[in-house]
# Entry
Amino acid sequence: MSAVVPGEAAILAKLANVRGLPALPMVVNTLSRRIGDQTVSAGEIARLLSHDQGLTARVLRLANSAFYSPKEPVRTPEQAVVLLGFSTVRAIILKASIFSAYDMERARPFWLHALGTACAARTVARRSGIGGADDAFVMGLLHDLGKLALDEFLPDIYRPVRAAVERDGGLIRDAEMRMLGCDHAAVGRFLCEHWSLPPAYRDAIAGHHDLSLASEAHRPLAACVHVADLIARGLMIGSGGDNAMPLLDPEALRLLNLREEHFASLFAATEEDLGRAEVFFTIING
# Structure
């Protein structure tokens, strides 16, 4: 008798009932929402940061690092916010709150793949001219977080999926859909909603394997993360949980105004950016 496939609604309901599912502290939630407001100032973000000494210290440390090489020491949170940009500050506050729930060392291959995808997404966003390169970086960093949540909070359900991929090969997403009726991208979208992240983030993560799942307005960002995931896999940066390569969606190239001959330069630029980003990641993990 074949096993019962739970389906997306059942999987998301189980996650919603997990007591230990990370939640954003109030100051982080407020910061994340205000960063998404085009009228917000660096001064307001700095004032909000000042309510959390740990976040303030991380922001100042990164701003004064060799990664940014400021001409003069950065002494105030407002100076740091101006130098780093709002999207980088968002990455820091998410890391300090959400990501702290997960064992970084145990999931090192996952995080390396996430970082590689983040660098590639920023590169693709810049080269394609769609804008939002720093947001694309954070979207790339978050794109597979659904896998980590399934592994961490629903291990009895997700362990057979991982075992099937290790035994039979293939894409982990295909195994998720076959065995769970739900993939990690849907879980990622659920997490973005749980954390009140902007709709662009939800769409980019939900649609990075199936562009039709992103709204038309945000489909180029989903295409950006889709292409970035393939670049990170092609460069063998970390592991997305399988050793297979998803098919490139031609619609993604159209949305991004890219051609296949652009990939050599995208690969090279991603590798160059990754070297700098590893410094960034070490600091925000500290």
Summary: The chain has a mean pLDDT of 89. The CA atoms of residues 146 and 191 lie 8 Å apart.
